[in-house]
Amino acid sequence: MSNDPLLQPYQLKHLTLRNRIIVTAHEPAYPQDGLPKERYRAYTVERAKGGVAMTMTAGSAAVSKDSPPVFNNLLAYKDEIVPWIREMTDAVHEEGAAIMIQLTHLGRRTRWDKGEWLPVVAPSHHREASHRAFPKKIEDWDIERIIKDFADAAERMKAGGMDGVELEAYGHLIDQFASPLTNELDGPYGGSLDNRMRFCFDVLKAIRARVGDDFILGVRYTADECLPGGTGKEEGLEISKRLKQSGLIDYLNVIRGHIDTDAGLTDVIPIQGMANSPHLDFAGEIRAATNFPTFHAAKIPDVATARHAIASGKVDMVGMTRAHMTDPHIVRKIIEKREEDIRPCVGANYCLDRIYQGGAAYCIHNAATGRELTMPHSIAKADRRKKVVIIGAGPAGLEAARVAGERGHEVVVFEAANDPGGQIRLTAQSERRREMISIIDWRMSQCEKLGVTFHFNSWAEADTVQAENPDVVIIATGGLPHTEVLSKGNELVVSAWDIISGDVKPGTNVLIFDDAGDHAGLQAAEFIAKAGSKVEIMTPDRSFAPEVMAMNLVPYMRSLQKLDVTFTVTYRLEAVEKSGNELVAHVGSDYGGIAKQRTFDQIVINHGTIPLDDLYFELKPASSNLGEVLHDQLIAGRPQTAWRNADGKFQLFRIGDAVAARNTHAAIYDALRLVKDI
Ligand SMILES: Cc1cc2nc3c(=O)[nH]c(=O)nc-3n(C[C@H](O)[C@H](O)[C@H](O)COP(=O)(O)O)c2cc1C
Ligand code: SF4
Q1: pTM for this one?
Q2: In the chain, fewer beta carbons within 10 Å around the N or the C end?
Q3: d(Cα 254, Cα 220) in Å, to the nearest integer?
Q4: Number of the ligand 2 atom closest to the C-alpha atom of 322
């Protein structure tokens, strides 16, 4: 038996958890019709297979129709959910893991124009900034109805074979009652702490009465809103004690902070560049004060920190939620003493940011997550060993090399630069985005183990490639900044990459014209502003940096607003002219009728990349498929069989930005999807 603190079993009432690592509630937005169908089940089961002790499925499964699915939540109010839940719980139990589900009423944290278009309810009219609905002040009959809805939903979940349910209180209706900031009710549910907690206890009592004692019940709540006038630490401690003393629940799941704004949410769930485990000590204080089973998750991305969380006795169960989106097999790798093989979560938050834009959660560098029905987390060996030559060691090229190596092929990679990483190496120039380099480092160490041959500093020509006698050639050469977007003066501007790489020194009065709207524009702005220069970001879009998304924007804004960077939306830079030492920007608008002239000493363009595809087109005539990718085969997960040139000696493919400017996830998905069948 291992003496690793993380691998010790934990007895939670009647439930034996096989180790100390859990996946906390998170809605990956995979439901179909509000139900956990095949895709949802496959995702959940993968983590159970990987060894986690318990997976808290769903984030915020909705108990009522006036808690509409604002990020494609499960609908726990539907009776037809029960058989789907049963299939999932049976499959998870078969893998030896426990499974619970988080239930909620979102209160004001939703929108009225979703689901059944019912008015949003909350204990006050105060709107939540993130979701924007002005709520109706909740009435007595709403309260009765919702309490019953919680109990009905819990009963459905028990019937579906769940080991228990957790109430999502923080930021949702239950804590909207508890917080003085969002509760303006008179009468039994407003005013004193007793009254503000009444709703939570009424819900818990109603659930317990329905599900009995042999069912785990927990609450995930904020024990300190970190907001003036809100639930502070002292009251949070009191709430924690009362929850324990109620005898109604079996554990506490501690949150610190508030989630009503993007900034608040990002402090609760920190992203890359922010401190690791920022609330762990706080969770430890709650555990010490209550002496009650305590769960906690907030950027504990690595095994060492998780081990510390358990060994130090700060928590009983440690959440590694995003870490399991990046690598569902963490526990198995710990048991097999292969911690170095764990694919690291880099805190990019592509997963979470996407669900707030209505998309499904995907991991920036594990394209199999959420695609378990079609993409493997473990790559199978190929029947025949082939020689695969890859040009480019950016994220696409390295993923292709890793997957080809796992398939058992002989793999050779040519890279023009001294180091691997491509655009990610540039991204990691920013202190805050340094964690991104693990996307590259992990792949390099995996490739090393797999015996991949690398030629750095090596500009591959068609001859070099053909001299290798490859069976397959993959062009992953990426792109170069595309700045030729002006009607005049393209030679007078520099690219965002020029600034980030340090190749061009910042000017003193700088315009960044950003119509790519991705990280590069904001990163360049931060570099320039930190050098003490004046920076204006201009975009023709309705909002700036639309590709950066909500939580990723937070650290930028915290930095850029302090540096007094200004943002100008809905204007387009059309041309640039030189006038003495100055640059004159000719500014128009897609809405028409505008022609302004502005003066700067440096103009930076961020307009994505243009593919670096010369080698691809040189090699194309010599290939057997003439570069063709059969989309039906690609999508169905079958080997590529295009045959267009009888004289061709190798198959030729290109992936990532060498095809068209996209993002890291797309590059890695291109590689995995293609190479897993080579
Ligand atoms: C895609 C996604 C959806 C989430 N949805 C919920 C949710 O509905 N309810 C909840 O309590 N937490 C939710 N979370 C937060 C996680 O449970 C966890 O607290 C958070 O990710 C921090 O832990 P980590 O750093 O280990 O990922 C979500 C997280 C992710 C990544
Ligand atoms: S997208 Fe980023 S934060 Fe989310 S799981 Fe993947 S690496 Fe972690």
Answers
A1: 0.97
A2: N
A3: 6
A4: 5
